[in-house]
Amino acid sequence: MSPLTYPPKPRPGDRVAVLSPSAGLPAIFPEVHELGLRRLRDTFGLIPVEYPTTRIMGADPADRARDVTAAFADPSIAAVLATIGGDDQITVLPHLDDAVLRANPKPFFGFSDNTNLLNHLYGLGLVGYHGGSVMVHLGRAGGLHPATADSLRAALFDSDWYELRPSVDWTDEPGDWRDHDVLAGPPRMFPGEGWTWAGPERLVEGTLWGGNLEILSWLAQADRIGPTAGLAGCVFLIETSEELPPDVEVYRILRNLGERGLLAGFPAVLVGRAKAWHHERPLAGPEKRAYVTAQRAAVTRALAEYAPDAVVVFDLDVGHTDPQLILPYGGTVRVDGTTRRVHARY
């Protein structure tokens, strides 16, 4: 496969589009959204530009796609950031103008349901950025986590290699946005315990592909994933959402991707720290540990059956937990099982 195109990077002072290709939650939680916009301006020196559907909940998929296309087409816009995820971005993709996106490459930042658009850009030969949504991590109560801020700054403005490192602390228990006092202080944090490595001690360098596991399952069902042969040699990224999928479902999704022939082609797998708590399902300590253990066992079982020679790294801060490190979707990553280091080329 030919290397994908890294879009030109923005610079401080540039205008960036802030869109809601998935859920229009800025309409429901404007304080959180405004905080994220403020951080874009004050911390990163970027000028956020909203589009017609950015603050509309339940906007028509065609209208959301029109905003995405317009943001890419506008020569005054240097990057595109999603406000948050959702669950129906897959319905937006057919309405995109691919010729416009391909002719006007821009860095796109998003995760979760934005796996749809990241995978779509991948199919167009463009590198995107997994992470960096405006409301979740830019709008974090108590300030951006230092690891998030450092990674996002590098992904936005730099084009060199960046080393991902285990965070000294983390959380999967953010404040409830329905609580008006939630933005007053930082979330409860837990001490970091590093990464867990499995598989052979060797160096793998390849193109990153994957994303949120539940969304990948939907994409596979809708036949929106490219040919298996075209993904061979990629470093596979997976992480799970606040919906807390059961371990049996995680195994089945990976098993089915394995039956498709995908897993056997991945020489390395990056597994995000499993989110094990949600406001609607606040697991206590022992339950949380049991959930995380079961998740890891499900991933381990599937990879042992379909990708036994892959280098595997568990518990990276690359998904729905906090902090969040940015990964170049379609870009190059280096996974070194000998030195146990991970680098991404931004």
From TrEMBL:
Q: Which GO terms describe its molecular function?
A: hydrolase activity
Supply the EC number(s): 3.4.-.-
Q: Which family does it belong to?
A: Belongs to the peptidase S66 family.
Q: Supply the name of the protein.
A: S66 peptidase family protein
Query: What CDD domains does the annotation carry?
Result: Peptidase_S66_mccF_like
Q: Which organism is it from?
A: Micromonospora zhanjiangensis
Protein keywords: Hydrolase
Q: Which residues form the LD-carboxypeptidase N-terminal domain?
A: 16-131
